[in-house]
Amino acid sequence: MKTVLNVTNKAQKGFTLIELMIVVAIIGIITTIAYPSYQGFMVDTNRGAAQADLVSLAAAMERHKAASFSYQGAAESAADTGKPDIFHQHSPSAEPYANRKYDLYISEASGSAYLLEAKPVSGTPQAGDGNVGFYSDGRRAWDANNNGTYNASEFCWNC
User: Fold this and answer.
1) Which pLDDT tens digit goes with each residue over 90-106?
2) In terms of Cα–Cα distance, which of 61, 56, 51 is closest to 81?
3) Which helix (DSSP H) or strand (DSSP E) does residue 39 occupy?
4) Is residue 1 part of a domain?
5) 115, 134 in Cβ contact below 8 A?
6) Is CB count within 10 Å lower at the N or C end of the chain?
7) The domain containing residue 51 runs over which residues?
């Protein structure tokens, strides 16, 4: 009598190494494409927060003028220019100072006019984004080409 072995091939379950490597490669390609877009979105978002903080600083400047009849003396140590003493010194102002993306400055101040600026913090993604400015007459500027001055075409926040 012959003994017949009943050998059945059971189907293997799982992924092969090649299939896993293909998935990893696809995820890497998608990440390579998506990450720069995400970074650009975050830079734009942080610039928007700086613009909002400049408007709030401008309101604080107006309160300071109502109390002292001048825009002068609103910076630290009652100076005319420098980091503000009447508002947060960084942006986004809702976050801790360690997470700042911009430093806020009173760049010019006289009895009747001022220039407020948000300057990007080095070492952050904002570093090459250019200063954002707000003038007492309502003009808004963004140094989009990051050359240190506001050209005529840069007197807007969404250039």
Assistant:
1) 999 999 999 999 999 99
2) 61
3) helix 17-68
4) no
5) yes
6) N
7) 17-154
